[in-house]
Amino acid sequence: MEKTIGAISAPIVSLSIFLAVSLIGGVRASIGVNYGTIANDLPPPIQVARFLLQNTLLNRIKLYDVNPAILQAFAHTGIPISVTVANDQIGELTELSFAQQWVKSNILPYTSNTNIIRILVGNEVVTTANKMLIASLVPAMQNLHAALVGASLSHRIKVSTAHSLGILSSSNPPSTGKFRRGYETTVFKPLLSFLKATNAPFMINPYPFFGFSGDTLNYALFRPNPGVIDRNTQLTYTNMLDGQLDAIYSAIKLLGFKDVDIVIAETGWPSVGDPGQVGVDLESAAAYNGNLVRHVTSGVGTPLMPNRTFETYIFSLFNENLKPGPTSERNFGLFRPDMTPVYDINGILRHKAKESMPGNPSPAVVPINPLPVQGKTWCMPKPSAESKLLQANIDYVCGQGVDCRPIQAGGACFLPNTVRAHAAYAMNAYYQATGRNAYDCDFRQTGVITVVDPSYGSCKYNS
Predict the structure, then answer these.
(1) Spatial separation of the C-alpha atoms in residues 1 and 291, rounded to whole Å
(2) Using one digit for the tens of pLDDT, what is the confidence trace for 179-222?
(3) Of 26, 203, 219, 392, whose CB is crowded by the most CB atoms within 10 A?
(4) Strands 312-314, 262-267: parallel, antiparallel or unpaired by DSSP?
(5) Is the dihedral of CA 350, 382, 460, 345 positive or negative?
(6) Alpha-carbon distance 156 to 148, whole Å?
(7) What predicted TM-score, i.e. pTM, was given to this entire model?
(8) CA gap 170, 126 in Å, rounded
(9) How many Cα atoms within 13 Å fall on the side-chain side of residue 432?
């Protein structure tokens, strides 16, 4: 992800995320998420896989590497996964033998159980300005495809690469979109020819967040605004994303490849920024991502690409606390590491999996009928519960003689070493030990009963 050229882009007004899989004109609209791992406090992949599958409507993921633990964790889930070859390996992939070995080592061990659908060769390669890397991009893609053909996998795994909007020399108005001079015929024409021949998509990372100014915030967030007219087509744009997508479409069409599909590989909005940063807050992040999903799944399309949907990957799944750069870079996540939502994302979580949000407390757990809950249930902290109250819960439970050794240093549930994670284990242990009555999970209105098993790795929650 990097700063991109702000173009112009259609109206949707809602703070809730309507995450759906639409069938508009026979086209499947899918909403996925970028699963980044530049953090030291993330939950185990097996727990993430279970959470996404059982609790959310996110139906695909994109990785920035080929992470064995994640690929193994998503085995048998059916969730489509895109993996990424690191930029520093692209040069080696220009040798067919290396590409064949790469597929043998990184793809073949997982294909029987894990639904890998796409290999992305590098990330935003053209805007690195590394001429050798750029020259190697298409040959590397061709060799990976050849290796997949040799392994009889080319029908189910496609090869592409994701670009920033920095590949454009012109984007405003959208109808003037064109690729940077010098790359049209040497990079993008052979790239698009390859994508068309292999039925793979052109993948782009459009970020209205990097293109807006104070007076275009509503335009960037899909909120009501006067709109912008493209002087060449007389088409009106009512949101910035549409303009960015149409600028890419114009550049692709200029080279004669208008039928190549476009996938939104990354887009998102941070919820926290540096002091005084305009438009970076919980409300703006919820507005952008909510309106984004409603728009790309609506079938409305864009002014130059009407009546269509877009496969879209939100950036990102988690806040990543080790990412360098400004504060916003560490706060693009939909979820915190404990898998509670960062802001109100009604519609992402299935059914009653969504609990209270900050500033919007959940109702108390009321023991209407104090009988043991039937079936397997667990007691977890509410997302709105404050750390000091959760620490008090830990102190109380462990003081009652409940076995708290698993959350002590060296214990199976010590990591992640956070108050919330330790409270989850302790509260559930107490709930199970006292008979699984609803009131045993009240904890002064900080607990909630769930039917989703929170166990992960070697940490097993009693049930």
Answers:
(1) 21
(2) 999 999 999 999 999 999 999 999 999 999 999 998 999 999 99
(3) 219
(4) parallel
(5) positive
(6) 9
(7) 0.74
(8) 16
(9) 19
Instruction: Specify whether 266 is catalytic.
Output: yes
Residue with tokens 């967040």: 209
Please provide the size of the chain in residues.
463
Whole-number pLDDT of residue 382:
87
> 447 has which bridge partners?
381
Tell me the C-alpha distance between 318 and 424, whole Å: 19
Residue with tokens 């053209």: 126
Of 2, 92, 184, 266, the catalytic one is: 266
**pLDDT, average across residues 10-15:** 30
| Residue tagged 């004669």 (tokens) | 256
**Which pLDDT tens digit goes with each residue over 354-386?**
443 333 333 322 232 333 445 788 899 988 888
CA–CA gap between residue 61 and residue 144 (Å, rounded): 21
The angle subtended at Cα 385 by Cα 383 and Cα 391, nearest 5°, is 125
Let me know: does 328 contact 408? Beta carbons within 8 Å.
Answer: no
Torsion angles phi and psi, residue 364, rounded to 5: -65, 155
Catalytic residue, chosen from 124, 311, 320, 355, is 124
Per DSSP (E only), the strands in 186-225 are 202-205
How many other CB atoms sit within 10 Å of the CB of residue 48?
A: 22
Q: State both tokens at 3.
A: 């700063």
Distances (CA, A) of 299 to 20, 198, 261: 12, 25, 15
Residues 268, 275 contacting (CB under 8 angstroms) = no
